[in-house]
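WARN retry 2 of 3 for item q-0093 after timeout on previous attempt; input resubmitted unchanged.
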Amino acid sequence: MAFDPTNFSNLKVTETIIPGFYEVGLIVHGDNRGWFKENYQREKMETLGLPHFEVVQNNFSYNEEAGVTRGLHAEPWEKFISVANGKVFGAWVDLRKGESFGKVFTMEINPGKAVFVPRGVANGYQTLEENITYTYLVNAQWSADAKYAAVNLFDPALGIHWPIAKDKAIVSDKDTANPLLKDVTPMDFS
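OK item q-0093 returned
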C-alpha cells in the first residue's frame, strides 16, 4: 500500500536555507508508559520530499553531560540525524563549493525533530541535557581515506549563538583546533 501523506499531517519534511538540507518533523506517540516514534521510513519521507537515501550504517553518540559540544565536521556522505532522548542544539555550515558556502542553519533537535544533512555540510551539536543519545543514519561507511572538512565551532564569522557558552562547553582538543571559515577549502563534489 502506498503512503498517503494526508494521513500523517504532523510528519513534515521542509527544506531549510541550506540547499539539500531538510528539517523533519516526526510523529511521537506517548502515553503513561513513555513514547514511540517511527524515526525513519523511506517511502513516507521521500513522498514528502526527502531525497532518496540508502542507509548503510547507524551510529550513536552518547553524551553524559549537558554542554558537550561536537563538530563542526563535513563528510562526503549524507546523514539523517535525530536524538533518542532529550534535546540538543544543532548547528550546520555549508562547506560545499558554491554560492551557499558558509551559510549557517541552527535549530533544536528533540525526539520530534530530525534533520537530513547533505554531504559537504558540516554538522555540530551541543547537548542541552544530561545523558543524551544522538543517532545518525549514513549512506556510506566511515573511511580513513575519505576527504573531510571542518570549521571551528566558535568562529565569530559563523555567528552561531551556542546556548552554553564556550567557557562552559565540553569540547575536544581536536574540535577546538578546527580552522576558521576563512581558512577552509570548500568541498568540491563535481
